[in-house]
Design brief:
The structure holds 2 protein chains of 2 kinds.
Chain A: E1 3-10, E2 23-30, E3 35-39, H1 46-53, E4 61-66, E5 69-71, H2 77-86, E6 87-90, H3 103-113, H4 118-131, H5 148-160, E7 166-170, H6 178-194, E8 198-202, H7 206-212, E9 215-220, E10 223-229, H8 230-235, H9 238-242, H10 249-261, H11 272-281
Parallel strand pairs in A: 3-8, 3-9, 6-7, 7-8
Antiparallel strand pairs in A: 1-2, 1-4, 4-5, 9-10
Helix pairs in contact in A: 3-4, 3-5, 4-5
Chain B: E1 7-14, E2 25-32, E3 37-41, H1 48-55, E4 63-68, E5 71-72, H2 78-82, E6 85-88, H3 101-111, H4 116-129, H5 145-158, E7 163-167, H6 175-192, E8 195-199, H7 203-206, E9 211-216, E10 219-224, H8 226-232, H9 240-250, H10 262-269
Parallel strand pairs in B: 3-8, 3-9, 6-7, 7-8
Antiparallel strand pairs in B: 1-2, 1-4, 4-5, 9-10
The chains are: A alpha/beta, B alpha/beta.
Chain lengths: 285, 271
């Protein structure tokens, strides 16, 4: 499901004092089935951008299109309901939102609210649990008895159970140990590849950007200052410094090898395997 | 320099509730020498943060002892000892008190009855060190996550503690500010003999440590140099260079089978 922003401005209006636009004239086209990393400093508008996609924040001017649903200033309730069924949102530390007595009840909460019948609910609970790689023995356990990584997967299952076409996640790996983080990100990648979900994640970690995503969207002070395919973005890695970003570890290593040997490899590697293959091809190994 | 450790944790046991069968920490013992940087690693729920809380006296072990400068931490002296031990938590949001950044850093100093001129000097130095001096008149609540974390770190540094514990205190920072702060801490460790305990999942942080301790399920399963610990614990996520070395070995290259730092790896690849 594709997402289009057309000249969108948005802010959080609290009382008579208007804040500056947290989203300031954004026009961007996110293609169906892509996996986009949203990066930028804190306060750049990353989370606000995600909230616009599922109608938690409405534009003050401009238009947002999610598939064939259109969102404008003061959208109708019907439109909001529609878009929220299509866009699954996973907030930062989503395990804090677990509330039910059992894992099953927690996951079933979303689909039930969206009017699934009991049979559909049962099926979607099972399917989503399967998608996040948890076994059905935990269905009757309290979500609070699970480990942090498992809790996060249950929270994700709760979102997947509503069968969204678009998944937006705010720092899905934050606070997890390396193993837990790897699992959750590979899982999201699989959903993107196998189920063709359109995915947007907010992240600070350039290694994850290189390893998992296919598009990069950089925000600065409410504006989108760069939207590129991940590979071509890293190909011009000199620009990362201009944006105040770090190189992924693998590019940093490639750069050090190039400097020390006084060579220039023909392309930029985004994974360990790629760098090894490249070194073999160019007969440096 | 003294021969005794600045911190000595001896055989402590701890559980949240006496009715629990499972201990969060069991039979945990280790020493930290003055001026040393100890990184504590381990999975979620391995007891790392609980250990930090016990060291600063926010909770007491069920048995065993914690000694700071050869003095056992107890109810009577923990206030006094805490003046020498700083801790920075993961989320700085809940620890702001002042209406401006500089007031906030000064708060801890006021509590210690530091004279005004010295207080001013210490606030200035600490804010300069973390790169927040320009924003000293800002309201802390309007700062970004990373800036807040820096103010929290400045507040602790201004107290001139002998030991600082960072409990995943850098995760909200963007990579560039994180690198700058780690560099600052390394220089404080060298120049002022600051003792540092950093609880972390980030290998960029562990490589700076003199010692790495591995906690698993509330027990110390290993302690040693970065090199030794990653050599012995293959299930820990190692620094990137070591990951790369293992990948090369797996693919059958005749690379030496021991831990390699980034520089060593680059040297081997370019030989």
């Amino acid at each position: 499901m594709q997402i289009k922003f057309e000249e969108v401005k948005a802010d959080y209006q609290l009382g008579p004092i208007r804040t500056r636009n947290v989203i300031d004239d954004v026009s961007v086209h996110i293609e169906s089935g892509t996996f986009t990393a949203v990066i930028g400093q804190t306060g750049a508008g990353k989370s606000s951008l995600l909230k616009l996609i599922n109608g938690l924040l409405s534009p003050s001017t401009g238009l947002i299109q999610v598939g064939d649903i259109q969102l404008t200033r003061a959208p109708e309730k019907e439109q909001l309901n529609k878009v929220r069924k299509r866009v699954g949102m996973v907030f930062q530390f989503p395990e804090n939102q677990l509330f039910a007595e059992t894992v099953e009840a927690d996951i079933a909460f979303g689909p039930r609210n969206f009017g699934f019948d009991q049979e559909q609910i049962n099926r979607s609970v099972k399917e989503s649990l399967d998608q996040v790689g948890l076994s059905s023995d935990i269905l009757n356990r309290s979500p609070f008895s699970l480990s942090g990584g498992q809790q996060r997967r249950v929270a994700l299952a709760g979102v997947l159970a509503t069968k969204p076409d678009v998944l937006v996640l705010d720092e899905p790996g934050a606070g997890l140990d390396p193993e837990g983080k790897k699992q959750i990100l590979s899982l999201i990648k699989q959903l993107n590849m196998k189920e063709h979900m359109t995915v947007l994640i907010v992240t600070h970690d350039m290694n994850d950007v290189a390893e998992y995503t296919d598009h990069v969207l950089i925000m600065e002070q409410g504006k989108v200052i760069c939207h590129q395919a991940t590979r071509s973005f890293f190909n011009q890695y000199q620009q990362l410094t201009d944006f105040g970003l770090d190189l992924p570890d693998v590019i940093y290593l490639q750069q050090q090898i190039e400097q020390k040997k006084g060579i220039k490899l023909p392309k930029v590697s985004l994974t360990k395997e790629e760098l090894i293959d490249l070194l073999i091809e160019e007969q440096h190994l | 320099m003294e021969q005794y450790p600045i911190l000595s944790v001896d055989n402590i046991f701890y559980r949240y509730d006496l009715r629990d069968e499972k201990y969060v920490l069991s039979d945990t013992s280790f020493d930290v020498m003055r001026g040393q940087w100890l990184a504590i690693v381990g999975g979620n729920g391995s007891g790392k943060s609980t250990l930090a809380r016990l060291i600063v006296g926010l909770a007491s072990p069920e048995s065993g002892s914690i000694q700071f400068n050869q003095e056992e931490v107890n109810e009577q002296n923990k206030q006094r000892l805490r003046e020498k031990i700083g801790i920075v938590f993961q989320n700085p949001d809940n620890q702001f008190i002042g209406t401006t950044v500089q007031d906030d850093v000064a708060f801890g100093l006021e509590n210690l009855n530091i004279q005004y001129p010295e207080m001013k000097q210490r606030v200035f130095t600490a804010l300069k060190q973390v790169g927040m001096y320009e924003l000293r008149d800002k309201d802390p609540s309007q700062l970004s996550g990373g800036q807040k974390q820096r103010v929290a770190i400045a507040s602790v540094l201004a107290l001139k503690p002998e030991l600082v514990i960072f409990d995943e205190a850098f995760i909200m920072l963007d990579p560039k500010s994180r690198r700058e702060l780690l560099k600052l801490l390394k220089s404080l460790q060298k120049q002022n003999h600051l003792t540092i305990i950093s609880i972390t999942h980030d290998y960029n942080e562990t490589v700076l440590a003199d010692q790495v301790m591995v906690l698993n399920d509330g027990r110390v399963v290993d302690q040693g140099s970065v090199r030794a610990v990653y050599n012995r614990n293959k299930d820990l996520e190692p620094p990137f260079a070591e990951q790369f070395r293992r990948e090369l070995m797996r693919k059958g290259f005749s690379i030496p089978d021991h831990y390699m730092s980034n520089d060593e790896l680059v040297a081997w690849l370019c030989k």
